[in-house]
Design a protein that fits this description.
The protein has eight helices and 14 strands. It is an alpha/beta fold and about 325 residues long. The chain has two domains: about 5-120, Transcription Regulator spoIIAA; about 130-320, Rossmann fold, CATH 3.40.50.150. Strand 1 (about 30-35) and strand 2 (about 45-50) form a beta hairpin. It is globular, with a radius of gyration of 20 Å. It starts with a helix and ends with a strand. The structure holds S-adenosylmethionine. The site of S-adenosylmethionine (SAM) has 21 residues, from helix 4, strand 9 and helix 6.
Length: about 325
């Protein structure tokens, strides 16, 4: 291996600790190495409290994965458990588990919110660290009477934040009931509660529109929407790029007060075709658009695009 991974990771950790001191705390959830921005394309290190995940997307590094794992383990120390998530040539991921922790659970925290993190080779680890800017952006939108709709909720991270912030209620919609059970565990850990709906987001939105129209439901005032590029369902339903047309139709008709939008599936944004520009054209001036500020999470503010990994684009929309 020609590349000195340990030295590069050490440098990244020191930079992180300077930028965002909370990351020194071994219980925190965060991103510690961010691909090209830290000097190596397609390599990500995230920590979820005791669990540390080294993800390798770059095929040129795969052969050295074991050594990268050892170097990562040495730097993080004996109290942490490092697993490898390696992109395989077939498109899936292969997991390396030198500490034998797959299947184990821990409690970790992001800021003042607790999350159950799991070494799970099917459902990831319980929170996506790169969405922290969006979770922080949600906080000031929440008012005591707020009802937050969290679409594609996964383990209900946004709802935990909303309820801790004092929202009246949150509704989490996810197609996978297991994720919602995990989300309820997160609610318990934080002493809050919210509702969960195991359903396709597309179906839920259609039903919400009907019920609001019939006067049976008050429309949630804040919507969070964070779909994966490919969801569950068949044909066009699986390709969530097609979901957005229906979504913006519902936004137009129901007109929520505020939205937090995360997108992982757009191309061309690096050439100036930004999400803000796209939505400005689409929404015809009915919403003010704001980027999620990275001021409070400078460790995630990496401008240099990685060759293998794309950071989500996130925006806050406020009804005019
Ligand atoms: C990218 S994660 C969402 C991340 C999440 N918002 C968070 O805060 O961590 C993807 C989630 O979307 C769910 N999902 C996929 N397709 C779906 C669909 N059509 N409707 C609802 N949920 C879906 C998956 O079960 C998974 O939990």
């Amino acid at each position: 291996m020609g590349f000195n991974w340990t030295a590069q990771l050490q440098k990244a950790l020191e930079r992180r600790y300077g930028l965002e001191p909370r990351l020194r705390d071994e219980t925190q959830i965060g991103r510690y190495f961010a691909g090209r921005a830290d000097g190596l394309d397609g390599v990500i290190v995230d920590a979820f409290g005791a669990l540390v995940v080294l993800t390798i997307y770059n095929p040129a590094i795969v052969a050295d994965a074991e050594q990268f794992l050892k170097g990562t383990q040495n730097l993080f120390g004996a109290g942490r458990f490092v697993i490898g998530k390696i992109r395989s040539s077939g498109g899936g991921f292969l997991y390396l588990d030198p500490c034998g922790v797959l299947g184990k659970k821990w409690i970790a925290q992001e800021d003042d919110c607790l999350f159950e993190t799991r070494a799970d080779d099917k459902n990831d680890f319980g929170l996506f660290p790169d969405a922290r800017a969006a979770r922080l952006a949600l906080r000031p939108l929440v008012a005591p009477e707020s009802v937050v709709l969290n679409l594609f909720s996964y383990t209900c991270g946004f709802a935990v934040v909303a309820q801790k912030q004092g929202a009246k209620a949150s509704i989490n919609v996810d197609a996978n009931p297991e994720m919602l059970t995990w989300g309820k565990r997160n609610a318990d850990l934080n002493g809050v509660d919210f509702s969960v709906v195991p359903e396709l987001a597309q179906k839920y939105l259609a039903r919400l529109e009907r019920r609001v129209e019939e006067g049976k439901l008050v429309c949630p005032d804040i919507w969070v929407c964070d779909p994966p590029a490919f969801g569950v369902g068949r044909g066009p339903q699986r390709v969530l790029k097609h979901f957005w047309d229906a979504f913006w139709g519902s936004v137009e008709r129901l007109s929520p007060r505020a939205l937090v939008i995360l997108r992982n599936d757009r191309t061309g944004y690096r050439e100036g075709h930004t999400l803000a520009r796209e939505l400005d054209a689409l929404l015809g001036g009915s919403y003010d658009l704001r980027g999620c500020s990275f001021a409070d999470c400078p460790s995630l503010c990496y401008e240099v695009p990685d060759a293998f990994y794309k950071l989500n684009e996130s925006l806050v929309l406020l009804r005019r």
